[in-house]
UniProtKB/TrEMBL annotation:
This is Uncharacterized protein. GO terms for biological process: peptidoglycan catabolic process. InterPro entries: Lysozyme-like_dom_sf, MltB-like, Peptidoglycan-bd-like, PGBD-like_sf, PGBDSf, SLT_2. Residues 30-225 form the Transglycosylase SLT domain. GO terms for molecular function: peptidoglycan lytic transglycosylase activity. It comes from marine metagenome. PANTHER family: MEMBRANE-BOUND LYTIC MUREIN TRANSGLYCOSYLASE B (PTHR30163:SF9). Pfam families: PG_binding_1, SLT_2. Residues 320-340 are annotated as: Disordered. Residues 287-323 form the Peptidoglycan binding-like domain.
Length: 340
């Protein structure tokens, strides 16, 4: 009896391993994954899951990507009233967090939240297929994407092993991107940030998501504090790195300006707006500085609205602060740093 049981177990293991080793996805992932970091036993277990399946809809989705649409069509999808309203609400509800992220990385906060808006509509639309099965399907059913997908699947398994996550538990897009920021696995491993310091790089926690987006931009060419929004400029290139599409970049920058404009109207009157700006202003880009100058002028100052934080603007801000018992609060550069 014992001998029979042994034979059954032996052949189960034997044929089970043969089944895995014949799997194209398994073979390609094994060539790319860091086996010093991820044990082979773990990889074998992952590829033995009964939840693995190939989705016919995934190749169909790749046949009609958003990026292939004309700019007018693309614009209608992403720069629409409902998304502008959602972005304005998101900014209002998460203002403190957004400000902290923006100050740490010195990036335009409205670009960061616009990317989050286009990628997942602020956490409302970010899933449909398990990340594993999406990449697995691409390896088997889309030969031109197999090499890329196997690299991403290897990165995804490394992430799941390191953070103790069930590889079948995370859902993402048909392309294999996941989380509110829609990072592909290799980018998530490289750029994700544990901003809330809880020991986890969460793709579904806004502190980590927003910081990760900002970190990605900085690491991909965004010059800290830049206000160059021109085509081919550093900001354009960093957003293009996020998604290799001119339509995507134009949508992000377009939504950025719509939300920025809408957020400037959150204040019921000019006086309340000045109170807010004087207390919270941190000169990051020329547009926000020009906005400050415009608000100061509406309160009786006479400044050139040139977007430059010169001595006259600095003096006006400090004067406004003094009027509101904020004279000790320093805003902007020191006198030594200010140019006429």
């Amino acid at each position: 009896m014992f001998r029979i049981i042994f034979i059954i177990i032996f052949f189960s293991i034997l044929f089970g391993n043969d089944t895995i080793s014949d799997d194209l996805a398994y073979v390609m992932v094994m060539e790319k994954i860091n086996k010093k970091t991820v044990p082979v036993d773990y990889i074998n277990k992952v590829f033995s899951s009964k939840k693995i399946e190939r989705h016919k809809k995934i190749p169909e989705r790749f046949a009609r990507p958003y990026e292939k649409k004309s700019w007018p069509e693309y614009k209608k999808l992403f720069i629409k009233e409902s998304r502008i309203v959602a972005g304005t609400k998101f900014y209002s509800e998460n203002k403190d967090l957004i400000t902290r992220v923006s100050k740490k990385y010195n990036v335009d906060p409205f670009i960061v939240i616009s990317i989050a808006g286009i990628e997942s509509n602020y956490g409302k639309h970010y899933k449909g297929f398990t990340v594993f099965n999406s990449l697995y399907t691409q390896i088997h059913d889309m030969p031109k994407r197999a090499k890329w997908a196997s690299k991403e699947l290897a990165s995804y398994i490394e992430y799941c092993y390191e953070d103790k996550i069930d590889p079948q538990s995370i859902e993402g897009s048909y392309a294999g991107a996941f989380g509110f920021g829609q990072f592909i696995p290799s980018s998530f491993n490289r750029y994700s940030v544990d901003f809330d310091k809880n020991g986890i790089r969460s793709p579904h926690a806004w502190p980590d998501v927003l910081a990760s987006i900002a970190n990605y931009l900085i690491k991909n060419g965004y010059i800290a504090g830049s206000s160059d929004y021109s085509k081919g400029g550093n900001i354009w290139k960093s957003v293009w790195a996020y998604n290799h599409s001119d339509n995507y970049v134009m949508a992000v920058l377009g939504l950025t300006e719509k939300i920025r404009e809408r957020c400037s109207g959150l204040f019921s009157d000019v006086e309340n707006r000045l109170d807010y700006i004087v207390e919270n202003f941190d000169p990051v880009d020329s547009k926000s500085i020009a906005d400050l100058q415009k608000t100061l002028n509406a309160n009786g100052y006479d400044l050139e609205e040139d977007g430059k934080f010169g001595k006259n603007t600095l003096d006006a801000v400090r004067d406004a602060q003094a009027d509101r018992d904020k004279a000790n609060q320093m805003v902007g550069p020191t006198n030594k740093e200010v140019s006429e």
